[in-house]
Amino acid sequence: MTKKHLFIDNLQYSNWSPKIFDEMKEGNLTAVHVTISYHENFRQTIENIITWNKFIELYSDRIMLGRSAEDVRIAYDTNKTAIIFGFQNCSPIEENIGLIEVLHQLGVRFMQLSYNNQSLLATGCYEINDPGITRFGKQAIKEMNRIGMVIDISHTSENSSFEAIKLSKRPIVISHANPDWWHPSKRNKSDSLIKEVTSSGGMIGFSIYPHHLKDGSNCTLESFSAMIAKSADRYGVDNLGIGSDICQNQPDNVVEWMRNGTWSKEIDYGEGSKNNSEFPNQPEWYRKTSDFPNILEGLKNVGFNNEECSKIMGLNWFKFYEGNFCGS
Q1: How far apart are CA 305 and CA 312, in angstroms?
Q2: How many CB atoms lie under 10 A from the CB of residue 165?
Q3: Model pLDDT for residues 118-132, shown as the tens digit of each residue
Q4: What is residue 11's three-state secondary structure?
């Protein structure tokens, strides 16, 4: 893989369309981990997979399903974008551990243990009490390890995250978050947790969602890139990547779905502005997926060399896929 940098964005939740697929190609994105479930149950998630299968059939000149690192390599060689399925919650497996393998067979490669709230598997980062991984969660982690579904703790609480690392026989990821020493946020992660994830072979994907950024929508590319440089000093460069968390072209009512699902009659504004029921404006240097190459320029400007840039922009994620998308 020498003809151009391998670009991977390991988290997006955009309002998918041919226009965005064109922008993926324009931005030279070889792979994108797409969220196909927030609060959906198994049947609803299957409907989302059907929708994606139709997309992949209709726009096969631009996108393809990414089940393995080899699929990502093929996408790179054919100038396509590999679409990698993932969940931001464990709701699609309902109360049936057997559905983990079924969903993996359908192409799902990432699953978060929880999304902000307490789940059947683990505690979310917005909960006050953090009892840790549940009995079901311990069994789910074991099963995910067995089949090669990656454990994601992006929205999981601190104690549950440390327990998940201890329980898992495979590396786990923070697919989209930033260090809380750069910007304090319930969703950003502590220095000790990031160290534990990266030192055990896992990955962190740096997020460009404004509520995770220092100065929010006004965050500069220089500030974001400098944060990555400081992270490289603390954790090394081999376990760092990008998980932009861009929600391009999503209507504002999707924010309420993300925050509330069907569990609350009240609006849960989460964190950020006083009225967090609308999507914040993206920083001017990353407003659409075709802006992904701007991150490369930011990394160069803060002193990363060509090899280090290649790792952060996608090669680290690719190597992680090679080792973790297959069963034990």
Answers
A1: 11
A2: 19
A3: 999 999 999 999 999
A4: strand
pLDDT of residue 1: 41
Candidates 2.60.40.1740, 3.90.1750.10, 1.10.10.60, 3.20.20.140; CATH matching 7-324: 3.20.20.140
What was the pLDDT predicted at 252? 81
Could you identify the residue written with the tokens 């609803």? 44
Q: How far is CA 107 from CA 46, 52, 80, 194, 324, in A?
A: 11, 11, 18, 27, 14
Q: Look up residue 166 and give its two tokens.
A: 């201890």
pTM of the model: 0.95
Which of these, 237, 250, 314, lies nearest to 279 by C-alpha position?
250
CB 148 within 8 A of CB 169: no
Q: How would residue 318 be classed by pLDDT, with cut points 50, 70 and 90?
A: very high
Burial class (CB in 10 A: 0-12, 13-18, 19+), 167: middle
Tell me the domain boundaries of the chain. Answer: 7-324
Residue 215, C-beta contacts closer than 8 angstroms, at least 6 positions apart = 223
Nearest CA to 289 out of 105, 63, 3 is that of 63
- Residue 84 pairs in a beta bridge with 33
The one-character DSSP state at 283 is: P
Label the pairing between strands 63-65 and 240-242: unpaired
Residue 287 has pLDDT above 70, yes or no: yes
Of the listed ranges 87-101, 145-159, 242-256, 310-324, the least confidently predicted one is 242-256
DSSP per-residue codes, 172-237:
-EE-S--BTTTS--SSSB-HHHHHHHHHTT-EEEE---GGGSTTGGG--HHHHHHHHHHHHHHH-S
